[in-house]
């Protein structure tokens, strides 16, 4: 199940809030080596965790398994403020365009050796469903060029926004992905799971395993 | 027109290419300005894959025909230094790095020597990983290859779009085999079966005959490829048809 929470809603749940920022630290600072974001408290927080950010959270067995953050492009976001060398011309923006950042699958949930894990595809199904329900049909993602192939496999319409660049030992290309109902169907059939993944309300307190 | 606009124009054209051959032609149209005039992309066969099956792994191919024949006939895939380099490195590289870096056994030397006979003196190769973790190897070659580092990145990005388009065409041809359509009644019956109701109980709840509820469950079982009702319920839950 994937929960979509505003920053305010996330802050009302200290257990979740801490798990989210700790997972982000673990992955983006410790694994990927984004040292600009280093902090002694082991929590990764930036200026874009503002009141219009949307935090999408996948819970498995009472644990935080996956996370991504959606940012509106109607105000400053990563591409325009931090990664400005990744676009040529004017980057797309508007109420139907959001930026997907901090896509993360917790280490214990990366089941595929090289492929995308089921938590990973749940995050994808989640943002597509979330978008379609609120007239959002495009996301900007700054990802490794490898992901272009996967996006096309899922029948997103993909378009690069600029040249690929090398950051540290990582290649990154800013890409605009456009999606519709057909994309959602393809994502669902690839996952062998045709029901909605977007949950209403709030997850249970972390650490509580639900009897099934 | 800027270099970037040309790239975008190319991607637009790709979206309208409806056969693998058209995708190949578009891609080589872009890469030939860097001396890359031949192309091969496909999933890497396990060593020892029978020759007859090796061609099934090909996604895009515009290799000199005779060279492809020889490559398959002599089972070069198991000795090609470009292939083994790619399996190890899992990053883009130029062919000449592969033949330098690897202790060349007799047959690897032969592969590269033979390749130059077909005007494939150098090239670039890089692996891509699909959603389900399969490796797609992309290899572009030509007689005189001249690439700066930025151009290298650019060629690999446009190639990735081309492979993605080829894979879309591939799945469209296969159609979606995995999609199962359950009727609302079949779904309802399964939902009640999931909470332990018998056929008779289900018929009472839904106001249908016992025979009809049995029929719905049998149909659902068949569609889900299950051997009994327990498996049908489990499969329906896994696929998200019932909860």
Structure description:
The complex is a heterodimer of chains A (212) and B (243). Chain A is of the alpha+beta class. Chain A has one domain (2-191): Aminopeptidase, CATH 3.40.630.30. Chain A contains six helices and eight strands; from the N terminus they run βααββαβαβαβββα. Chain A has helices at residues 7-11, 14-31, 78-81, 118-132, 146-153, 181-191, and strands at 2-6, 54-60, 63-72, 97-105, 138-143, 157-160, 165-167, 170-178. In chain A, strands 1, 2, 3, 4, 5, 6, 7 and 8 form an eight-stranded mixed sheet that branches. In chain A, α4 runs antiparallel to α6. Chain B has two domains: 3-174, Beta-Lactamase, CATH 3.30.450.80; 184-238, Arc Repressor Mutant, subunit A, CATH 1.10.10. In chain B, α9 crosses α11 (210-223). With 243 residues, chain B is an alpha+beta fold. In chain B, strands 2-1-5-4-3 form a five-stranded antiparallel sheet, with helices on both faces. The mean pLDDT of chain B is 83. Chain A binds chain B through residues 88-89, 112-116, 121, 145-146, 148-155, 157-160, 162-164, 171, 173, 189-190, 192-195, and chain B through 2, 4, 7-8, 11, 15, 128-136, 150, 153-154, 156-157, 160-161, 163-165, 167-168, 171, 176, 178-179, 238-241, 243.
Beta-strand content bin of chain B: 5-15%
Contiguous uncertain segments of 5+ residues of chain A: none
Strand order of the largest sheet of chain B: 2-1-5-4-3
Sketch the major β-sheet of chain B: 5 strands, antiparallel
CATH architecture of the largest domain in chain B: 2-Layer Sandwich
Radius of gyration of chain B: 26 Å
Mean pLDDT over the full residue set of chain B? 83
Q: Quaternary state, please?
A: heterodimer
Q: Hey, which two chains have the biggest interface? A: A-B, 33 and 36 residues
Q: What would you call the shape of chain A?
A: globular
Quickly give the structural class of chain B.
alpha+beta
SSE order of chain A: EHHEEHEHEHEEEH
Q: Name the CATH superfamily classification of the largest domain in chain B.
A: Transcription factor LuxR-like, autoinducer-binding domain
Q: What is the rounded Rg of chain A? A: 16 Å
Cα shape of chain B = elongated
Instruction: Give me the number of helical elements of chain B.
Output: 12
- Write out the CATH superfamily name of chain A: Gcn5-related N-acetyltransferase (GNAT)
């Amino acid at each position: 199940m994937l929960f979509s929470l505003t920053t305010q809603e996330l802050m009302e749940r200290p257990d979740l809030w801490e798990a989210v920022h700790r997972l982000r630290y673990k992955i983006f600072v410790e694994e990927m080596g984004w040292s600009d974001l280093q902090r002694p408290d082991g929590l990764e927080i930036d200026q874009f965790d503002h009141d219009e950010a949307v935090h999408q959270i996948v819970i498995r067995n009472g644990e935080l398994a996956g996370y991504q953050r959606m940012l509106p492009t109607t105000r400053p976001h990563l591409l325009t403020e931090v990664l400005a060398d990744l676009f040529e011309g004017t980057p797309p923006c508007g109420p139907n365009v959001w930026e997907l950042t901090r896509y993360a699958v917790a280490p214990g949930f990366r089941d595929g050796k090289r492929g995308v894990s089921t938590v990973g595809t749940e995050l994808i199904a989640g943002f597509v469903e979330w978008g379609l329900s609120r007239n959002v049909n495009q996301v900007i993602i700054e990802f490794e060029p490898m992901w272009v192939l996967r996006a096309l496999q899922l029948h997103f319409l993909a378009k690069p926004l600029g040249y690929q660049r090398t950051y540290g030992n990582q290649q990154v290309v800013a890409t605009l992905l456009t999606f519709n109902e057909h994309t959602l169907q393809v994502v669902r059939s690839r996952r062998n799971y045709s029901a909605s993944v977007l949950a209403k309300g709030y997850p249970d307190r972390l650490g509580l395993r639900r009897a099934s | 027109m800027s270099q970037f606009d040309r790239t975008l124009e190319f991607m637009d054209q790709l979206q309208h290419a409806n056969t693998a051959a058209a995708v190949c032609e578009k891609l080589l149209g872009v890469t030939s300005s860097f001396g890359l005039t031949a192309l091969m992309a496909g999933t890497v066969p396990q060593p020892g894959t029978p020759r007859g099956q090796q061609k099934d792994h090909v996604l895009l191919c515009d290799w000199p025909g005779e060279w492809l024949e020889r490559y398959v006939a002599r089972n070069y895939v198991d000795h090609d230094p470009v292939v083994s380099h790619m399996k190890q490195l899992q990053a883009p590289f130029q062919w000449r790095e592969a033949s330098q870096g690897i202790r060349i056994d007799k047959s690897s030397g032969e592969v590269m020597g033979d390749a130059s006979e077909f005007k494939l003196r150098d090239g670039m190769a890089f692996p891509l990983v699909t959603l389900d973790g399969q490796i797609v190897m992309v290899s572009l070659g030509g007689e005189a290859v001249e690439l700066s580092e930025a151009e290298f990145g650019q060629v690999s990005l446009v190639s990735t779009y081309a492979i993605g388009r080829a894979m879309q065409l591939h799945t469209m041809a296969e159609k979606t085999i995995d999609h199962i359509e359950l009727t609302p009644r079949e779904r309802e019956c399964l939902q009640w079966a999931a909470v332990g109701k018998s056929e008779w109980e289900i018929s009472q709840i839904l106001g249908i005959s016992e025979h009809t509820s049995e029929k719905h469950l049998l149909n659902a079982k068949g569609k889900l490829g299950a051997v009994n009702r327990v498996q049908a319920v489990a499969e329906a839950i896994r696929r998200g048809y019932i909860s």
